[in-house]
Design a protein that fits this description.
The chain is 17% helix and 39% strand. It is of the alpha/beta class. The chain has two domains: 3-107 and 258-272, 3-Layer(aba) Sandwich (Rossmann fold); 112-252, Probable inorganic polyphosphate/atp-NAD kinase, domain 2 (Tumour Suppressor Smad4, Sandwich), CATH 2.60.200.30. It binds NADP nicotinamide-adenine-dinucleotide phosphate and manganese (II) ion (MN). Residues 55-57, 60, 84-85, 133-134, 169-170, 172-174, 177, 233-234 line the site of NADP nicotinamide-adenine-dinucleotide phosphate.
C-alpha cells in the first residue's frame, strides 16, 4: 500500500493524461485550470496522483507511462464516454474531484497485476513485464504449439491460435471475449484463456478457462520456436527465440485513489447488462 500522505505537509502533485479526442482535451484544459486555482501542483514527471481523461484504454496507457512509479503513484480515471472499469468519475464532476484532491488523505484501493517473465533460447537476458489487463501470445502464421506447466508440473500440450492470461480487472476486457469468467479484483488470481484450441481425438486441452491463485504460476514452454506476437495490454511486442514465459500474480499492485467507491458488480452490470426496466414487465 502507498504511504498515507500527511495532510497539509506538502502539496499534492498531479499529472494529467488525456486521449486525443476533442472532448477529452477540452476537459483536460479545464481540469488543469481548476487544479492550479485550487492550489494543487501539476508535475508530469513525479506525480503523487495521475488523473486520466478518456476511457479504460487511456488509463491503460497512463499505467504503462508511470510504471516506474507504480509503488507510490495513485490513479484516478475520468471518463468522457461510458462508465469504465478503471474510470468512475464523470466529466461534469470535475469540481467535486478537485475538492477531493484538496482534502486528500492518501487513501487507496489496490488491485492485482500480472507479472510476465520472458526467457530466450539465445543468450538474451530474461525480460520482465507487468500487465494491467492481460498478456496474450499468438501465432498468426501457423499453429502455435506450447507446453503448459502449472507450478513445476506438466499440465497440457496446447495447439491452437494462442493463449491469454489476464488479471481480475482485465477479466472484463479481452478475457471476457475469450469466454473467461469475470473475476472480482479483490481476488489475488490470474486467469488463463485458450484462443481457438485444436481439440479432437489426437489433441487435447482443458478447453475451459483456468484460474490460479497468487501462490502458483503458469509456465508456457514454446515448442516450435516461431515468431510469436506477444501483447501486453495495448502494446504489441513481436518476439523471436522465445523459450518460455512465466506468468504469476505480481507482488506489485496498481493503486487507485479511493475518494468514493463504485461496487465492482455495479460496474459489470452497467457495462454489460444495463439498468433494469423501471416498470415491471408482465411477460
Ligand atoms: P481498444 O481496441 O481501443 O479497446 C478495446 C475495448 O476494451 C475498449 O472498449 C476499451 O474501453 C475496453 N477495455 C479496456 N480495458 C478494459 C477493461 N479492463 N474492462 C473492460 N473493458 C476494457 O484498445 P485499448 O483501449 O488500447 O485497450 C486495450 C485492451 O483492449 C486490451 O488490453 C484488451 O483487453 C482489449 N481488447 C479486447 C479485444 C476483444 O474483446 N476481442 C480485442 C483486443 C483488445 P475504452 O473504450 O473505455 O477505452
Ligand atoms: Mn480504447
Amino acid at each position: 500500500m502507498p504511504k498515507t500522505r500527511q495532510k497539509g505537509r506538502q502539496r499534492l502533485k498531479l499529472a494529467i493524461v488525456s486521449n486525443q479526442s476533442t472532448k477529452s482535451k477540452r476537459i483536460m484544459t479545464q481540469l488543469e485550470e481548476k487544479l492550479l486555482s485550487a492550489g494543487l501542483e501539476i508535475d508530469q514527471n513525479d506525480p503523487d496522483v495521475v488523473l486520466t481523461v478518456g476511457g479504460d484504454g487511456t488509463l491503460l496507457s497512463a499505467f504503462h507511462r508511470y510504471l516506474h512509479l507504480i509503488d507510490k503513484v495513485r490513479f484516478v480515471g475520468i471518463h468522457t464516454g461510458h462508465l469504465g472499469f478503471y474510470t468512475d468519475w464523470r466529466d461534469y464532476e470535475v469540481d467535486q474531484l478537485v475538492r477531493s484532491l484538496q482534502n486528500d488523505e492518501g487513501t487507496s484501493v489496490s488491485y492485482p497485476l500480472l507479472d510476465v517473465m520472458l526467457s530466450y533460447s539465445d543468450s538474451k537476458a530474461d525480460k520482465q513485464f507487468l500487465a494491467l489487463n492481460e498478456a496474450t501470445l499468438r501465432d498468426f502464421s501457423k499453429t502455435m504449439v506450447v507446453d503448459v506447466y502449472i507450478k513445476n508440473d506438466f499440465f497440457e500440450r496446447f495447439r491452437g491460435d494462442g493463449l491469454s492470461v489476464s488479471t481480475p480487472t482485465g477479466s472484463t476486457a479481452y478475457s471476457k471475449s475469450l469466454g473467461g469468467a469475470v473475476i472480482h479484483p479483490r481476488l489475488n488470481a490470474i486467469q488463463l484463456n485458450e484462443i481457438a484450441s485444436i481439440n479432437n481425438r489426437v489433441y487435447r486441452t482443458l478447453g475451459s478457462p483456468l484460474i490460479i491463485s497468487g501462490h502458483e504460476w503458469i509456465r508456457i514452454d514454446i515448442k516450435n520456436g516461431g515468431n510469436y506476437h506477444l501483447n501486453i495490454d495495448h502494446l504489441t511486442i513481436p518476439q523471436s527465440k522465445l523459450k518460455s514465459i512465466m506468468f504469476s500474480v505480481s507482488r506489485k499492485k496498481i493503486h487507485f485513489a479511493s475518494y468514493r467507491h463504485t461496487p465492482f458488480w455495479r460496474r459489470v452490470n452497467d457495462a454489460f447488462i444495463g439498468e433494469f426496466p423501471k416498470k415491471e414487465q408482465d411477460d
